[in-house]
Amino acid sequence: MNLHAILSILVFSPLLGIAVLAFMPKNQEKSIKIVGFLATLPALLISLAAYAHYLAGKHLSDFSVSVEWIHFRGMNVEAPYFAVNYELALSGFQLLLVVLTAVVATLASIAARYVKKEWKGFFMLFLLLEVGMLGVFTAENLILFFIFFEVTLIPTFFLIGKWGYFEKEKAAYSFLIYNGLGSAVLLIVIMILFAKTGTTNINILKDILADPSAPVSGDLKLGLLIALLVAFGVKLPIFPLHSWMLRVHVQAPPPVVMIHSGILLKIGAYGLIRFGMGLFPEQFDTLATLIAVLGVINLLYGAFLAFIQTDFKMVLAYSSISHMGIVLIGLAAMNEAGVQGAIFQVISHGLISALLFFLVGVLYERTDTSLIGNLGGMAKGMPVAAGFLLAGAMASLGLPGMSGFVSEFMAFLGLFKEMPWLAAVGTIGIIMTAAYLLRAVLGMTFGKSHREFTGVVDLKGVEFVPVVVLMLLIVLIGVYPSVLSSPLQATLETIMPGLGG
Amino acid sequence: MENAWLIPLFPLISFLILLLFGKRLKEASAYVGILLTLASLIYSILVLFERFSEPTYVTKFDWLTIGDFHLTAGFEVNQLNALMLFIVSLVSFLVHTYSKGYMHGDERFHVFYAYLGLFTFAMLGLVISPNLLQTYIFWELVGVGSFLLIGFYFYKEEAKAAAKKAFIMTRIGDVGLFIGMALLFWQTKSFEYSDIFAAVDAGQVSGTMITLTAILIFIGAVGKSGQFPLHTWLPDAMEGPTPVSALIHAATMVAAGVYLVASLFPLFSASHTALMTVAVIGGFTAIFAASIGLVQTDIKRVLAYSTVSQLGYMMLALGSAGYVAGVFHLMTHAFFKALLFLAAGSVIHAVHTQDIEEMGGLWKKLKLTGPLFLIGTLAISGVPLLSGFFSKDEILAAAWEGGHPVLFVLALVAAFFTAFYMFRLFFMVFTGEARGNQKHVHESPSVMTFPMIILGVLAVVAGYVNTPWFGTFLGDWLVDGNEALAAHGHHEGPVWIMILATVVSLLGIYLAWLIYGKRSVSRNWLSGSGDMMHTVLLNKYYVDEFYQLTIVVITKGISYFLRFIDTFLVEGIVKGITGFVQGLGATGSKMQSGQVQTYGAVAFIGLALLAVIYALTGGYLR
Questions:
Q1: Which residues contact B359 (CB under 8 A, 6 or more apart)?
Q2: What mean pLDDT is predicted for residues A305-311?
């Protein structure tokens, strides 16, 4: 069977939904929401089928596709063509991110039931955003990656700016400016590499750059890596480039925050791993201490600030900063345990933050607030939601048996081998994470209730779907981490030799 | 033994069933929980008997692959594990039964049983873990079980604070364990106990590293077992329902720290400093907590401080290289302390208060609870012929033989305190006039008294498995086939220790009787002799206040300082960037002046520049 078209179908399948939506009347709220939800399903099914394909022991390279797209030549006629092909492929790491994207997108489309206006426009942008995300994780060359990367920016900008809360415009603009600058830096890096080597295919680039006779000097590589660190550091985000994402987390509507903190932030981590570490392993090693320090700063900075927030959304926003610090810590370790931990953390945090932000949406929908002080004693009125909130917090603080533990454990284990002192400082973050999450969650659910929760209904109906699915995945990874680690082995083997042992 | 993994599985099933269907089952939930823990208990007994005749059984499978390392999961049944399985499943079964009466009428009855199942699962999983990582995993899970049950009355502010405190305090300890585990892994390349011991034995790990990792791991045990300075969560944990206090905060989870040190004993015994640390912390905690217990007036808090103190005793034993003594006391303590808590629960159930000032004269009204409480009190006080006497004697002997005369004296004084405050409690609750508002006081139903009777019998006879008179079966069996432990087996202490211990304990009881029973000595003798001392003890040496003023304030301080940075420094950068972009836009828009002359001039300059570049580079940009 010819599987080469599968990835293109996967990536562009949400467009079908956009086409259908285009012909629907604007005011049919219910059917628009159903179509929007259905449009995310093809991608979900295909990505799961791809995972099954892997489980069946077949090669992921079956999916690779490469079609000639653009090619041109400089003024010098003897010089080889500059070719940009349309190339998509899946490695184990990419497969996991694609599955994550598809799952979170589908669940977020369920969360879109809370959208109050202009459902048609919302879902069209939402589906376009999904195309962008799926493309980012499957693109095999930098130009294509960049295009998809930009495709994620524009819909997100409008989704925040139009459907967000009170300060939505401000949040949307600061999102656009920061990410715009980030992608400008990224574009410069891509263009320099393209001009120097004549290719943007990631695997070819990797071989070229590994060759000492390549036309790219060590200093230039270091410069490019630092530029990448900035470009993806905005996305991740790395302190002090984080303030835009706090606003986005607070102002964006629930389905968009689920996508944003669940997937979009992970593009930063993906870029750092695939391009930063993948293309410039030696330089990455040079910067390892710096990256570890940045990681510990992120971890502690986010944790301490999360400890004094009064809005639960802000707690989660700072918590995201803190958790992304663990990704950096794992990467900085530059050994199997650390890198695998970082990748686990990417997936795990995607699931956990999607879960928590969905629950925030559920609460906001019913109580019109996400302030911790206003929600005290909520467990009395909505015990099931409170229970899931507590379970989500437990996952987030790294309780064994859930995904957060496995990733945190491996990332720290890796760093303890290389930089034990720094790792020991970082473990303060483990304590602080427990402290701020329990403070926030117990503040909302336990204690005397400050308000009557009569008439407030508990989690019901279709709302169970995202919560239960995410919870099951979180527990599955925690109990049986091989679901992630076995597809990753091949990816790690290709990254690791580049690290020089 | 091949199927010993089923033992933790039963309570897990109970947890899942009750989580999903508990609401419909209502109080029938109790039967699910009771039957499934009974299955665990029966199986544990079978495994224990099997282990008497068969060697250690280990099995494992790959759990997670990291590069070349294959981390495994599995289970192991050695002597210590088999014994712990029995203790945990027995106490859990009894508490499950007891709770059916105690929790009757609570609207979250099924949730309570679900949590009990979760906790029992985690605790049983903990005691059969064959490696450090798996131990850590279940270690954290028992912490969650404890957290959920402390916070069971979630609408009470005290319960909320206590649950949070318990989780965070133990997590501080857990981080120590985590660091120790990670460092040890890179030293020995394995989490398996057997590999770690082999590496330590073969001298692959440097002496400093052994000491460092052992002490770090001990910090984990300090957190879990409520040792000084991480003890403050345990008394507060009494906010949980009383059966929980019996199961988790007396018999099983808090003993996990002792169990951890015991199961890593070959590591600890390789470092003199580490053992000394364990002994000193244990000895200090024993007397420290006992002295606080002297003045508390909440029946459960007295028992809680007593637990802290007794756990200190066990640590002291292990630190003095008394492996058998520590484990033996762990077992006897589990029985008599669970008994005391369940009896206390029965009292609370009857009089609806926890303040001993409002009790009194209950001996005649609670015809079963009274004598059972007395048995527990006699056992913990170390009165001869009961279980506590033998295990305490073993510990004192270990401390003496271990060459810690100071710690030996501390332990003796702590024993005196224990006898005193326990009998103070007994006399205040059961003798004298009825104080407070006691109406309709009646004995608890048989579903509650039955578990207490079983524990009462065990509190009397459990000591006879290891006595200097009839043989040290337990001690011999525990160290059988294990050379590393054989040297730390039963300590045959001199006879005078036994006599001295008895005298000290009887003195404590006599003094308590004089003050609280016969009332011939003023109750205020202590406060009279030193008002300061009494206040200090009543306020638990102000440790909580100290933490509040230091750690909490510092944490908040750092947070607010970082917020300052976040609002001024980082936002400053943001302003800079947005300002830059806006400025660029403003300049750009100014350029669009509409003046054709300017446009022409710019175009001409540009063209000229291009021409110059072309001339200089020869037409091709390299």
A1: B299, B347, B351, B353, B428, B429, B430, B434, B435, B436, B438
A2: 88
